[in-house]
Amino acid sequence: YSVAIGEAQGDTTTSSYSASGALTGDTWTLANGTSGTDMYNADGSYSVTTNDGAGDTTTSNYSASAVELSETWSKAGGTHGSIAFNSDGSTTATSYNRDGSYSVTSVSAAGDGMTAYYSAAGQLTGDAWTKANGTSGRDNFGSTPASANADFKKDGVHVSRTGNLLDRQLTDGVVDANGNTLYSMDLLVGSGALDD
Fold this sequence. Notes:
disordered C terminus
């Protein structure tokens, strides 16, 4: 059965119960246009869905001990995604753009993060990473897997690598915090000059 309650300012709540009287869910709407739904499972776990009234929605899933396990979201503009909160303290989030491209971000319990970017066809187009110790970097892949550049930084000074693997040419450089090139060296792939 269900019980509906309406308030003078326009807020409404409808609660649903099982035959034994256990609350199984509720829906609510506020006068400002926001709304939501709560669903309660027999094992004590539950989910909470909210809509901000402008088309943005979020659903959060919780364990019986009120620990958030996962979340899904969608925006009125067409983007959507999800995040999983793992038992080891790490998280994994996926975010989709309107054109079908997407990114996957993994963050360890220690605070190290990696985001991989994909085209709508599933091709890896780049990545970016950060470490808890303050280092960070990125790799950008061109229209073909053969072209790439990388950038690794800490405290403003960073090492960059650019080039095209089809031409077997790479350039390494050291750049200071002001963008000045301190050192650069041209490398030929396969010549033995690379020491990665």
